[in-house]
Here is the input.
Amino acid sequence: MSQNNELTVIDRFTIFEQLNMHQRCIDKGWGREQSDLYNRLYWPEAKFHVNDLRTSTFEGFEGMKQMFDYAHSVFPMDKWFHSMGAFEISGSGDKAEAHWRWFVYWKAEHVGIVSTGTYDDIFERRDGVWKCLERTSKSDPNWPNDLFQPFIDRADITFKAS
Here is the structure.
């Protein structure tokens, strides 16, 4: 930790790795092992606020697992991949904020971007470990409702828990 209590380069890089791992966990596939790996990015009482076709808040490990399972069993995640855009990480002591852009691209059938948006995160360090305490996802106004709505409409049929 630096003398003025600001985040060090190592703190910022560790948080950046968490952001990157979030995207990687989504893309690695579905199942209990992947869901557990994704859950390890969050503190047990973490909250994830989703603002896209629906407005939902997922809380704790069970909530994160439900969100992960929903995304992987309702949407064609095997046809997409996630990428990080610009980001900024700030904070001091054991608290940090990360503001970053996300992109979802086609990797099959089509070319281009599926959707874009932002994440606003609050990170906390406990016993030397940085994890996300709260995340808010906001879809950009270009959100393709016509692409996503059919998947949402069939969620009762396609949803599976890992």
In short: The two ends are 39 Å apart (CA to CA). The longest helix spans residues 9-27. The chain has a mean pLDDT of 90. Helices lie at 9-27, 32-39, 60-74, 145-153, 155-158.
